[in-house]
Each structure stands twice: as C-alpha cells, then as structure tokens.
Write a structure and sequence with these properties.
It is built from 11 helices and 12 strands. The protein has 304 residues and is α/β, with parallel strands linked by helices. Helix 2 packs across helix 3 and helix 5 crosses helix 9. 44% of the residues lie in helices and 20% in strands.
Length: 304
C-alpha cells in the first residue's frame, strides 16, 4: 500500500527554515520552538523521504545533495507563500473598515468621540453606514455592526459593549399637567419614531396595549428624532444612554423605563465568526475604552 503523497507540513516547514538559516537554533527562533524540536522534525522528514537531508557542521548545518534539491523547491514555494500572505495583509490593512450602525447611535454617541480614534489611527479608513436597516455582514462585507438588543442573535458573534435601558421620554413642556400613569396613556400623545424601527409600538404591545388608527406619528432619522424630542414635538422610546444629559438637566423626563436589573439590553458589537483583521481590532479596542471612560465618568458624577 502506498503512503501519502506529501509529508506532514510541519516537517517541511521546519526543514525549509533550517535550510534557509543553515541553523536549527535560528529556525527554532523563527518558528517559536526549540532547536531540538526543529532537529526532530528534520529527522522525521529524512525518515519519511528515506535519505539524509542535513548534517551538522560546527554550530550550523549543511545540506546534502538530496537536501539541496528538496530545499530549492521548498524555498521557492514557501517564499511565494510568504510574499502572497504579506501582500494580502498589506491590502487588507488599507481596505476601509466598514461599519453598520443606527443613525441615533452614530449621531448621539459615536460622532462626538470619533475624532479621538481618527487621531490615534490616521491610516485606517472608515466607512460608516448609519441606517436602521439590518444588514447581512457576510454578503454586504461589513466588518462590524453596532446594534441594540439582548445580543441573542444566531449566526454571529455578539459582545456587550454599551449597556443601556430603553426609556420612554418626552420634553418636560410636552407632558406638563398631563396625567401619564399607564402605558395606555401614551396613545394620547404625539409620537416620534426612528425610520425603519417600531420601538414604541413593540414596547406598548409587550405591555398589552393595542394601538389602532394612530396617525400623529412622525418617522424620521435618528438624529432628527432626538432633536425633535428635545423640542417637545412628541414622545419617543430610545436608549437612555443617548438622553442622560437631557434627563439630568431637566429638559427631558422619563415617563417609563424598562426594568432590567441585570442590564442585559444595550448596544452590542456584532461581527462574523472568526478572527478580526487588525484595523477592526483597533476600532473595537477603542470603542471599549471609550465606553469604559463613559462609565467611569457616570459613576463619578453619581458619587458627587
């Protein structure tokens, strides 16, 4: 019975490195193994080939005639592989980082902070797509999506990033003197809703409130919704993190708020399964640092 047509890759890799460096020790440093491990792999390759390939000479090694013949092919093959990988990594490093996120998150949280990332990473090109539409990360070649929810989404890797409760809020002037004690009372007020979403309808439905024939709803982009909200044009359901300053200043009041003691809801970093390319690692790391800094400032404000 004939054996496999190719020896194990680890043997070939160790031999190629040793042949290139003419040293087991130098090959071991490159491969992050001991010189003994390299020597053992070369010996196994010699057993597999049935001929001697290397022999020690002083502190280094020299190739036999058969070893030189094998090394010539391997040095060319591995050299091509290294060049191809290097070219791929270089092109991948300059490919724009493509991010999908909601308009409200983009305007209220990301844009006031993004200058810091750009200053730290001037060589990373960003493509930000602020849209409420759900995207197919693989089909549409997105590196990352930033989405609100509990993170339980199939087929993707989701990591909690910015915890926040959903809150139903309104300008103080809009609700002054109005009795708003139950979720049903919200149906008597004008609504503001981000285009492509239906948070308030879902929030009410979860509390048994059916909404029919309501027409005083304005659908608009997230950044415009928050502006209209502050102007008193309607009630909105939004992540509380976007309106904390307005609530603290008294410009907005919280009418209702989700009770989520474990803070499972919030913004998540959503990406395709598998390793992250270097620009994405930097962006994700920066997002996490910015979120931690926000949390520390909020905690400090609460103590004072």
């Amino acid at each position: 019975m004939s054996g496999p047509a190719m020896p194990p890759f680890a043997m070939l890799r160790a031999f190629e490195a040793a042949a290139r460096h003419r040293s087991y020790s130098a090959a071991g440093r490159e491969l992050n193994v001991t010189h003994v491990a390299v020597s053992q792999q070369v010996r196994r390759l010699e057993d597999w080939m049935g001929v001697p390939l290397m022999q020690r000479e002083g502190r280094g090694v020299v190739l036999t005639a058969d070893g030189q013949r094998l090394a010539t092919g391997l040095l060319e093959g591995f050299g091509t592989i290294r060049e191809t990988v290097a070219a791929f990594r270089a092109s991948d490093a300059v490919r724009p980082l493509k991010i999908s996120l909601t308009p409200s998150f983009a305007m209220s949280w990301l844009m006031p902070r993004i200058a810091t990332f750009r200053a730290e990473n001037p060589n990373i090109e960003l493509m930000l797509n602020p849209s409420a539409d759900m995207v197919d990360l693989r089909r549409d070649s997105y590196d990352l999506a930033i989405r609100f929810g509990d993170g339980d989404w199939p087929g993707v890797e989701s990591e909690p990033f910015l915890p926040s409760r959903f809150a139903v809020v309104a300008a103080a002037a809009l609700v002054a003197g109005k009795a708003i004690e139950t979720a049903q009372d919200l149906t008597n007020l004008p609504w503001l809703q981000e285009v492509g979403t239906d948070e308030l309808l879902l929030w009410l439905a979860a509390r048994g409130v059916k909404v029919e024939d309501k027409h005083d709803i304005v659908h608009l982009p997230g950044y415009m919704m928050l502006s209209a909200l502050r102007e008193g044009q309607g009630v909105a359901c939004t992540a509380r993190v976007f309106v904390e300053d307005d609530i603290a200043a008294g410009r907005l009041v919280v009418l209702f708020e989700d009770d989520d003691p474990d803070m499972r809801t919030g913004y998540h970093l959503v990406r395709r399964p598998g390793p992250m390319r270097e620009p994405l690692k930097r962006f994700v790391g920066w997002l996490k640092r910015a979120a931690r800094a926000d949390a520390a400032m909020t905690a400090e404000a609460a103590r004072t």
